[in-house]
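Colleagues,

For the teaching module next term, I've prepared a clean inverse folding example: a structure given as tokens, and then the sequence designed for it. I'd like students to try predicting residues themselves before seeing the answer, so please don't circulate the second half yet.
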């Protein structure tokens, strides 16, 4: 595995049921291989799985991420991080990340321009006005590459495309 892995400003969409809410991005780690996961959107088209936090000794920190499934109910939305945020593992995460892992993460409908699970439809994963992903991110260090940083006014938007950016086109 890589010595460290930093995953930020992405939009992940999973059609099948996932094992954990972060779609495996925080798993399979080992001591000395830090992992950071910031300002991403995880859209689960199937059920919303549980949050499976990593052992604090593995140095995995995630924050400023949004998790959603159209199948999520209000109980899941309200409780996804509750057990972890009340745990010793959360307290220990503050030793490496002052705010604490998941502190600024949320569970909400990202309100994209268009997000359909119909494979014949064209999706547009940019946020609409009033979306909870607008200005919901945490500051990313200036030395981390971000080609869209200057296109994002205010606090960082979550996901791959900030508000007002044209979506990328591939093909004719």
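(Answer key — instructors only)
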């Amino acid at each position: 595995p890589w010595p460290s892995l930093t995953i930020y400003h992405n939009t992940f969409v999973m059609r099948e049921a996932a094992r954990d809410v972060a779609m495996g991005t925080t798993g399979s780690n080992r001591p000395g291989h830090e992992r950071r996961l910031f300002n991403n959107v995880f859209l689960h088209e199937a059920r919303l799985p549980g949050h499976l936090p990593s052992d604090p000794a593995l140095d995995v920190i995630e924050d400023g991420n949004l998790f959603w499934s159209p199948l999520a109910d209000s109980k899941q939305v309200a409780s996804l991080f509750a057990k972890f945020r009340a745990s010793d593992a959360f307290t220990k995460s503050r030793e490496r990340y002052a705010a604490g892992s998941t502190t600024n993460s949320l569970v909400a409908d990202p309100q994209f321009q268009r997000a359909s699970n119909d494979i014949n439809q064209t999706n547009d994963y940019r946020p609409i006005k009033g979306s909870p992903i607008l200005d919901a991110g945490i500051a990313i260090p200036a030395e981390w590459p971000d080609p869209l940083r200057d296109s994002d006014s205010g606090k960082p938007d979550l996901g791959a495309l900030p508000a007002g950016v044209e979506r990328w086109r591939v093909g004719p």
